[in-house]
Write a structure and sequence with these properties.
- By secondary structure, this protein is mainly α.
- It has eleven helices and no strands.
- α3 runs parallel beside α5.
- The relative contact order is 0.14.
């Protein structure tokens, strides 16, 4: 089956917006890479606001890391690894840089998960038989809006939803985070798993990822229903 095109729902959980001023900051920094000498005042002006932007980027990466491996030192170390190893070009846009940093973080996270339990990310022997409450792996299939999802993951129900996510089986939680939070396609997710999830993960395919992800969406729909009934 051909890989799906990237749609507006390729990241189901509304991502943090590109920080205000990030594009202008990137433009200023790129201007320093013209091969010409620059005085200290020019460099200082170009780097103004750098700490605030880096803090926001690190917070977003930590949020993703904690969904994959849990809160704490491991997630902090993953953020540091992502910052140190992300393949970012001086010509990348802010969106491309964000994706590169997420890829670096997820590669390291998958390797950590596999080191904890080599069988936890094992690829299914065959595409799982559909056993879900939905037929698609898009946001519309869950019957919820982006605003409702944002409330779940960033609003007052955040702790309860994180407990739900942590309680999912490792492969389901991992695939849900890679697709819904990091925004990777099914093929990108399968490739990450196969390349960084250990020897047992070598057989992951896009179709297997789609079916596991549907299970995660079905579970998410149940959480939304419970949250609605509890209000």
């Amino acid at each position: 089956m051909p890989e799906e095109a990237v749609t507006p729902h390729s990241s189901l959980i509304p991502p943090q917006p590109i920080p205000a001023g990030a594009r202008e900051f990137a433009t200023r920094v790129h201007s320093l890479l013209d091969g010409q000498p620059h005085d200290c005042a020019t460099v200082d002006r170009a780097l103004e606001g750098m700490d605030a932007i880096f803090d926001m980027i690190a917070a977003g990466l930590y949020n993703l890391a904690s969904m994959l491996v849990g809160e704490g030192e491991d997630s902090v170390a993953l953020v540091e690894t992502a910052v140190a190893t992300a393949e970012i070009s001086a010509h990348d846009t802010a969106e491309q840089s964000r994706k590169a940093s997420r890829q670096a973080l997820c590669r390291a996270a998958l390797e950590l998960i596999a080191s904890r339990d080599p069988a936890s990310l094992a690829a299914p022997a065959e595409v799982p038989t559909p056993q879900t409450c939905i037929e698609d792996d898009e946001l519309d299939a869950v019957g919820v809006s982006a605003a409702e999802l944002e409330v779940l993951f960033a609003g007052p129900d955040r702790d309860r939803v994180r407990k739900w996510l942590a309680a999912l089986p490792t492969e389901l939680r991992t695939i849900f985070a890679l697709r819904a939070v990091a925004g990777f396609t099914a093929q990108e997710t399968a490739s990450l798993l196969a390349e960084h999830g250990g020897p047992a993960a070598a057989g992951w395919t896009a179709e297997s990822v789609r079916e596991i992800f549907r299970q995660g969406l079905c579970s998410l729909a149940s959480q939304l229903l419970h949250a609605t009934n509890a209000r």
